[in-house]
Amino acid sequence: MLEEQAMGWEQLHEQLRDAFRKNDVICQDLLSVVGQEEACSAVVQDKCGGHCLLSDCFQEFLRHTLNMASTQSRRTDMPPVPVDFAPTWWWQVSNLRLLRATDVLFHHGYPMQGLALLRQLKEQALFLGAMLSGITSWAKIKGLEEWTGRPLTEQQKGRVRSNRMKEEKRVLNLMIRKHSRLPKEDLSELARWESVFNLEIHGGFLTQWLDHGPGMRGNDGVSLGPELRTESLAMYMNRFCEVAWMLHRTLPILQLSDRRFDQKWVQTWRLLDENFYAMEYHTLAEANKRVREAIIRFMRLKFSFAPDQDCFDRDACQPRSGKTQDGQI
Asked: Which of 29, 164, 258, 273 lies most in the core, judged by the most C-beta atoms within 10 Å?
């Protein structure tokens, strides 16, 4: 039976090859789109050099931090790591992969699709920031009453989704929304900032307006492949800087109180932090000045973490006492 099914699949695949073969090339027309993507990559690297440099350096630093944290956690001459540490490490691995996905989309002519993925990273950074602030824990933000490292019971599994949704809502309200104690005018600007991500997630509005709008209004030729638009590139780069900065400030969560990262790591963390601040302060257009200032104040109030901070030096995740000057913008 399986052999007959396998033969059927091969016959179907051969029919597909025949149907889409042109001049002995399968899907020849699609290659033109691939060519446009490769051309976009060269243009992005040329025109967006400052952004690409900061993006690449941060991704490399995140990768280095993950490797360092993994090595430190496996030391046999030290006490076992807390049970929440391993899943938090894997959480940041997922963030690195998601960051890479947004970067690949950006470099190949799909900045608005990359922006859609940045929305997910934005919320992950907010949740990690809440962990470092002592607002929540890994188990709570994942919808678990507790985390022992053992498989969940069926009863526990039934409550996970409901618990997670309630905790996520609570954390977002405390971090960036109505219960955050942020100034009222900043809450308004941050709500607009969050809505930018939602516009792309729900209906692809930004893609239709910024990327396809000129063609729909008859002001441009029609292309089925990607075409770079200044507005789309700027929109992505600004939001990437802000989300990556938030994520960068959560990296001390991978540091254990009894095995801290070395001084070189601390210096590099500070250097990247200064670059994120400079990019945010100097590159946003004057029309977005209020958003820029609200973001900077938000980072100062809600992400004022320092490279000597950690999350796993107590039974529950709590911030270290006091804030150092390294944690101030």
From this structure: 273
